[in-house]
Design a protein that fits this description.
With 370 residues, the chain is α+β, with helices and mostly antiparallel strands. It has two domains: 218 residues, 4-Layer Sandwich (Glutamine Phosphoribosylpyrophosphate, subunit 1, domain 1); 143 residues, no CATH class. Helix content is 24%, strand content 34%.
Length: 370
């Protein structure tokens, strides 16, 4: 129940000496061995606060771990992943001293039976990248060399070829960091949409975390605070889409360094709100004594830096097409996010939302009717 991906886009602007930007993505869903017969999958896309204490057939864990200059993404069931994390933690002081730590990490992965993608960035002035992958699945002009592991492998590889095509159409000098953020954010938004509509075929997902190397900062960057919004189409008739409105499911994601946090917001009725606060702990080099801030206090002060807006389009055969736009910069002033138990203000300003819906609907060859 895993999807992990590595890509290494060449740098088109800035030209750091390494020449590529390593990017690692990993989902957060892990299967549980021998779950209770009454257990249900626990996912942010369908979560209700009452589900927190019910028996679960899946767990949510942070499979993408950052240790200094090393990023490791894991594929396997939850118990085996935790066993790998235990072995890594036991040997962390030793393998961090190695010039090529990926060989040691690969040996541990093989011994416990997990798949892993590992990337270690050598210390300057050494510009080499010490990588570990099961297979090199592609080597393309715009997203570079990479590979995928887990049950979500084929889904992720197909998305890579879509991203490659999009980059091919980018204007010369396009900022590759912006493209990476847009690609990674869209993967999460798309997977959440598939789970909302019940069309996620392979058992992986929950959320998709990512990290990419910032040569200028000499560190891995886990991305931005992000909010996810969804439009649904009520009716498509004679090529005209109408009754287009926000789906009452919203998500906030805070990447953090020591742990991540996801808020699943469900509004079943105008005067009702269901909030599910989910914590993703680091499995490697984690702080077992960490005390987490109260969820209401944390999310009550939280604001997104970027947002995705996804249009879910019914194709008439029980399947859906998902179109995602990432909002950054000045566009974020049109995004509303204010969450607490007593009131909620989540949405997109009406005039801006109308323009968004029109442009996204027309992009797939339909007309839009307010």
């Amino acid at each position: 129940m895993t999807g992990c991906l590595y890509i290494s886009p060449p740098v088109f602007r800035g030209q750091p000496e390494r020449g590529v930007i390593p990017v690692v993505l990993a989902d957060v869903m892990a299967s549980l061995k021998n779950p209770d017969p009454t257990a249900i999958p626990f996912l942010p896309s369908t979560a209700r606060a009452v589900d927190i204490h019910l028996p679960k057939s899946t767990n949510l864990v942070r499979k993408l771990n950052i240790i200094g200059r090393t990023a490791v993404a894991l594929a396997g069931d939850g118990l085996t992943i935790r066993k790998f994390a235990y072995e890594i933690n036991q040997q962390i002081d030793e393998w961090r001293k190695l010039e090529r730590p990926m060989r040691a990490i690969g040996d541990i992965a093989n011994s416990v039976g997990v798949e892993a993608i590992g990337i270690h960035m050598m210390e300057p002035p050494d510009t080499r990248i010490n990588s570990m992958m099961k297979d090199v699945d592609f080597n393309l002009p715009n997203i570079g060399m990479g590979g995928a592991i887990g049950s979500g492998k084929h889904d992720l590889l197909s998305l890579c070829y879509e991203f490659e095509e999009a980059l091919e159409k980018s204007p010369p000098g396009a900022d590759v960091y912006d493209k990476i953020v847009g690609f990674c954010s869209a993967q999460t938004a798309n997977r959440l949409a598939q789970e909302i509509t019940g069309s996620a075929e392979n058992k992986w997902g929950g959320y998709v975390e990512y990290a990419f190397w910032r040569e200028d900062q000499q560190k891995w960057f886990r991305g931005f605070r992000i909010a996810h919004y969804y439009f649904g189409i009520g009716l498509i008739e004679n090529g005209i889409a109408s009754d287009v409105g926000l789906i009452p499911r919203f998500f906030g994601y805070n990447p953090g360094d020591d742990f991540a946090r996801i808020l699943s917001v469900f509004v079943p009725e105008p005067n009702s709100i269901d909030l599910t606060d989910i914590i993703l702990e680091n499995l490697i080099n984690s702080d077992s004594a960490k005390v987490y801030q109260d969820g209401e206090k944390f999310w009550g002060k939280w604001t997104p830096e970027i947002a995705t807006v996804t249009l879910i389009v019914p194709k008439g055969d029980g399947t859906y097409l998902n179109i995602t736009k990432t909002l950054v910069g000045e566009d974020m002033c049109h995004v509303l996010w204010n969450v607490n138990r007593n009131s909620i203000a989540i949405g997109i300003e009406q005039e801006f939302a109308s323009k968004l819906k029109k442009s996204m609907i027309e992009a797939i060859g339909l007309s839009y009717k307010e």
